[in-house]
Structures are given as C-alpha cells and as structure tokens.
Predict the structure.
Amino acid sequence: MSATEIERDLTIWMVDDIPQRMFYAGRRWRITDIPTRLRDSIWSAAPGRAVGLYGWRFQATDEGGESYVFDVFKAETGWHVHHAWS
C-alpha cells in the first residue's frame, strides 16, 4: 500500500449528507464502502500548521476498476483530498 499526501480540489456528490460519488484528478469515482465521518479531527493542512477539519474517509473506485482510500476535508474553498492510499 502506498500513501500520497496531496491537496487537490475535487467535487463530491452527497446523498443524505453522505458522499456517494466524486470527480477527482480527471476521473469519475464511486464510493464503494461505507464512508467514515472524520469530525473534530486534527490534520496537518500545511507543514507546521494544524487545523481542525471536517471530512470523510472512504474507498472509491474509478471507471477502470482502480480503487483508493481517500481522506477528504472541506475547507473554505471547497472539498480537498488530504491523503490517498492505493
């Protein structure tokens, strides 16, 4: 398993306030497990700066069958991927 720490914009579609689909890195993804809410989590959003973030952890699969686990968070500018594991 490899981990990637990134901060990229993404679009998330929610159903009853739970992530169902997303568009990220030029690909469409389906959420393929039960998302875990990450409330009151403290992640390092930038080196040396900890920020309380609201987010989710879930597995998503693209149209080609490639799956990753994503940690995503909502910031003032929209949704972002914080980590992705393959």
Observations:
- The mean pLDDT is 83.
